[in-house]
Amino acid sequence: MARHHDTIEILVTARHLEAQGIRPTTRMLRLALGGGSNAAIAQALAVEELTPLEELIRRRRDQLDLDIANARRVLAELEAEQARLDELDDSLAALGRA
């Protein structure tokens, strides 16, 4: 079964091979990654020709920061809704005791 690898993981692995003086091929990268799609690896290598790895990492980090901020906003909204429900439950319980 082929394991999925994202573009950044493929390119970092390629950089590691290059640092060892090895010009990485698709087959070498697949072996180094322990699997993966030849097409995905070839596509990742083509992407790096257009966009440097450091830029891809920066963009991904920025997207993750945005996703985290959005998740925190949604969590805050859910916590506020939960607090409103708790208040309503408390007010109903108070009515039942009266």
Walk me through this protein's architecture.
- It is a single chain.
- This protein is mainly α.
- The protein has 2 domains: 1-50; 52-97.
- Helix content is 81%, strand content 0%.
- The chain is built from 4 helices and no strands.
- It has helices at residues 7-19, 26-33, 38-50, 53-97.
- It is rod-shaped and about 80 Å long.
Helix/strand/pairing class, anyone?
mainly alpha
Could you tell me the number of beta strands? 0
How many structural domains can be distinguished in the coordinates? 2
- Separation, N- and C-terminal Cα atoms: 65 Å
Largest sheet: none
Report the C-alpha radius of gyration, rounded. 24 Å
What number is the mean pLDDT? 92
Number of helices: 4
What order do the SSEs take from the amino end to the carboxyl end, as H and E?
HHHH
Backbone shape: rod-shaped
Strand residues, percent: under 5%
Give the % helix.
Answer: over 70%
Organism: Azospirillum argentinense
Protein name: KfrA N-terminal DNA-binding domain-containing protein
Coiled coil: 61-98
Keywords: Coiled coil
